[in-house]
Amino acid sequence: MTPGARLSAAIEVLAEIEEQRRPAADALKAWGLARRFAGSGDRAAIAGLVYDALRRKASAACLMGADGPRALVLGMLRLERKLDADAIARLFDGSGHSPAPLEANERAALESGTLAGAPPWVAGDYPEWLDAHLARVFGAERAAEGAALASRAPLDLRVNALKAERERVAAAFAHLGAEPTRWSAQGLRIRLDPQAKNPAVHAEPAFIKGLVEVQDEGSQLAALLVDARAGQHVVDLCAGAGGKTLALAAIMGNQGQIYATDSDKRRLAPIHERLARAGARNVQILTPKGVGDVLADLAGRADRVLIDAPCTGIGAWRRNPDAKWRMRPGALDIRVQEQAALIERAVGLIKPGGRIVYVTCSLLDEENGDQVRGFLARHPDFIAMPGAEVTRPLGERALVFQHAALMTEEGLLMTPRRTETDGFFVSVLMRRAEAAAAASRTQSDVTEGTVTEW
Fold this sequence. Notes:
globular, nine-stranded mixed sheet, Rossmann fold, Alpha-Beta Plaits, 22 helices
């Protein structure tokens, strides 16, 4: 397919998404099944165009003065792909299967259109109803934070410390341009051009041998901040496919015990094969059976409980851009209730001095700070650990990370704009029995802008 034909296909898919109210992935799959002539490269290119148009849906519509599929693709080419009007006109020339030539008003918008004076939800490309929620967290910076969430995410890998060192794996992925991540000592990053398709990492020998897993650096950091240690009992309460479970197993060096469970056993299905490939041997998978609590025997025994809570997923919009336009206010209310119930469940598992690590991939205070404040009001025997203590597992990177992330009394918030990761909130909640000692250690370990490892 020619570049122009791919643009026509992207416009067609966007129309299907709008008319049928269906997820982008479903519309793209249906388009490909109906057009077997399109090769894998064509399908990947069309998907890239569709997702980029969805990333810039609000700003593209504002620039073009129209919100139809064709206008969104035109605006995206100008705003996201950075093409000028002449370059776009060469693609929209009406020849073959290319889109019809530019009309005068379209050319004028591409040449002189501007986002100056656009409201934050347009400049930041997010739904208008979320503006007040994001203003609570970011104030005047919410448009910039939203724009960063609309950018394309890099491909991050986590080196499996049970089997390899980062330098060895980096060499194995040198042909893909892998480079060390900024914060995670086990991370590698592959930066992708706007038109590049994701490399077939799952077919790489290093992946097949279990030397590496695909995991955003923010997710890697969330696992590190659990501060799990060899010999401990750690519960992963929302383990899902096992990304953070695998990271915890490597952090603990296969010593101690991790109990991985999830409310939906279907989400646990991939974890078995992933554990075997990674060589993680200190994990018990506790599959819910519908009768009784599979964690009942762990009451009061856990050193750490990780809650990777179900949330609105705003922090992952870079990877799933159509989700933000399908999200509705009612979804937030449902998630808030689920999160509160999970934190309450964790209380009964923690032994004296243990920690609950509450994590979301949301940027909303309703799911983050509000949840922590509500929990602390209900449980005065817990405190939210101070930022310097929470970030201590990052070693020499801790202090710089504290300045990059948004630090509050309840926890820390990572965003694409601040930390170049997906959006993640992390709060570490500790029983007061250990609070005084931890606070004392923090004061002695952080002096004159340095962090002492201990």
